[in-house]
Amino acid sequence: WLKNEVKNKINPNKYKRAFDCGKSDIRPILPAKFDTPRVTGGLSANDHSFPWVVNVVNYKSLR
After folding, report:
1. What is the rounded distance in angstroms from the CA atom of residue 22 to the CA atom of residue 48?
2. Which of 3, 2, 9 is nearest to 24 (CA)?
3. Measured on CA atoms in the order 32, 38, 41, 43, is the torsion positive or negative?
4. Mean pLDDT across the chain
5. Which of 15, 22, 38, 43 to pair with 50, CA 20 to 30 A apart?
6. Under 8 Å CB-to-CB from 7, ≥6 apart: which residues?
7. Rounded to an integer, what distance in angstroms lies between the CA atom of residue 17 and that of residue 19?
8. pLDDT tens, 18-37?
9. Is the Cβ–Cβ distance between 26 and 5 less than 8 Å?
10. DSSP states of 25-51 as a string?
11. Could you tell me the sign of the dihedral formed by the alpha carbons of 34, 38, 43, 45, in that order?
């Protein structure tokens, strides 16, 4: 499914605008159920910042 969607969305002849650094011509292809916030208890990041701080814990390894 996703492979076909990408092929349908990416057409090099379709986009004829000047290059804009950091801006994509391709919209994200995510089903609506995945297009929601998944991080809880956090703070919103400022525009153009690198907000990722992640702590991954495997509780089985803590025994």
Report:
1. 10
2. 9
3. negative
4. 65
5. 15
6. none
7. 6
8. 666 666 666 666 656 655 55
9. no
10. SSPP---GGGSS----S--PPPTT---
11. negative
